[in-house]
Amino acid sequence: MKWVGKRATWTSWALALGFLLACSCLAGAQDGDGASKSAPAAPVHPQPSDGTYIIGPDDLLAINVWKEPEISRSIPVRSDGHISLPLVGEVQAAGETPRQLQQEIAKKLQSYISEPDVAVIVQEVRSHRFNVLGQVNHPGEFLLTNTTTVLDAIAVAGGFKDFAKQKSIYVLRQNADGTQARLPFNYKDVVKGKNISQNIKLQPRDTVIVP
Fold first, then answer.
1. How far is CA 138 from CA 131, 154, 166, 172, in A?
2. CATH architecture for segment(s) 60-124
3. Taking a C-beta distance cutoff of 8 angstroms, is the pair 189, 182 a contact?
4. Which of 1, 35, 141, 160 could form a disulfide with 164 if both were Cys (CB 3.0 to 4.6 A apart)?
5. What is the CA 77 to chain-centroid distance, rounded?
6. Which fold has domain 129-210?
7. pLDDT tens across 81-91, in order?
8. Could you state, in order of their start, the residue ranges of all structural domains in the chain?
9. Residue 77, Cβ neighbours under 10 Å: how many?
């Protein structure tokens, strides 16, 4: 009964604190004459901490093995998709989620450490990006989401410059065997609802070229 009472007390405090924070947020969202302002919605990106993020080459990982500083370290994923750790050896990291990778590392450490406690955190996302080059207003490298299409890429790059060849756009894609594919994209057709299959979802390291 004592524990129930304590839990009820903590619940009451949590509800009160939540109410105060909500009031504070509402007050902060108002300008000087009381009109509320709504912030623009932020784009949704796959977060390295969630269960859906797939590790890729060049991502920087933080590997922490509890009470084992000799093994714990920050390490980039090599271009072949592997990482190398003391006692663990070579491990395939690309294509795995952080949780899958930490389970694999823990499994390999069981021969040396009793009940190894492993944590894998993506410190820096370097693989899930794409490039837009050529006759756009803001060419460069951009963060790739799960739903980014060629049209999205053009939009985030600021749209076309005056003399862009909108019918001759193409995507350069690296194949698994090292070859490169060239995928055409006719902007004029797609915005008219023609050949919309050209508006493909981009993959990591794709490059959109606007001549």
1. 11, 9, 16, 18
2. 2-Layer Sandwich (3.30)
3. no
4. 160
5. 15
6. Outer membrane lipoprotein wza fold like (3.10.560)
7. 999 999 999 99
8. 60-124, 129-210
9. 24
